[in-house]
Amino acid sequence: MDLSTRGKVDRDGVEMELTRFLIKKLVEDRVALLGVMLIFALFLAAFFAPVIATFPADVAEFHPKNRLLPPDDTFWFGTDRMGSDIYSRVLFGARITITIAIIAIGVSVLVGVPVGLIAGYYHGWFSEMLMRVSDIFLAVPQIVLAIAIAQTLGPSIENIILALSATYWPFWARLVYAETRSIQNETFVEACIALGASPWRIMVLHILPNISSSIIVRTTIGMGGTILTAATLGFLGLGAPAPSPEWGRMISESREFLPMAWWYATVPGIAIFLVVMGFNLLGDGLRDILDPRIRRSVSHDD
Known about the structure:
- This protein is mainly α and 302 residues long.
- The protein has one domain: MetI-like (MetI-like fold, Orthogonal Bundle), CATH 1.10.3720.
- It contains twelve helices and no strands.
- The protein has helices at residues 3-28, 30-47, 49-52, 86-121, 125-139, 142-153, 157-183, 187-194, 199-235, 247-254, 262-289, 292-301.
- Helix 6 packs antiparallel against helix 7 and helix 8 packs across helix 9.
- The radius of gyration is 23 Å and the shape is elongated.
């Protein structure tokens, strides 16, 4: 076996050992595991909503005789002002929540990470300009800017995704910028430069993998923040239009029926709370599990 093959086998062994170690740490971390279970429940509810919903065909229908009924054996979580089953609407609302969060966070990462990498690796007026643009976005409270954009564009799922993406990307740009600057002078980066590697190769193949743990943690926590902000916009009437079963809109519609129909606001409110808490718990757990010191200890032990 030549040296290159042996080195590849050694690296593969280290990666497998690291993966097993990280999974073990995740399972042992009960808080992070609870977050995984809550997130898994969200995705299951969204995917199987047509199957597990008690009235899947009536989530946007008007049934006057069933209006504002309390929880019972037929309507597990009660009904809303249209007479629709709240349990079924919450399940289908999970689909809207996941769609908004994944697309908004995905766009934010795709924009913010390259901006942060370029601004962090290079020095000069272009790098400063990129960071000043992100600072302008960060100077305005994120929720205020999202409300302004959503109000200007009008209520729709597409517009709320655009509003969230436009306000969230600077967080990833600033994070990646700081992480890139912190490791830019490391020995492995200087070695790549000395060997003639191109800047893009260094950024994508060497710097980015070394800061991926911070990006993963920020993305996980950002999912929770995005869901909460989307619910806030829906509560203000700037999210998905009626009769869409969006959680924030459901809470907004329930205000005039409180405290009589307490279940109307309680059920979607608990759903938002559990999902946001799940992403935050998982993010906090990943922050500890993906600590670079863990990787170094595993590599040295191997």
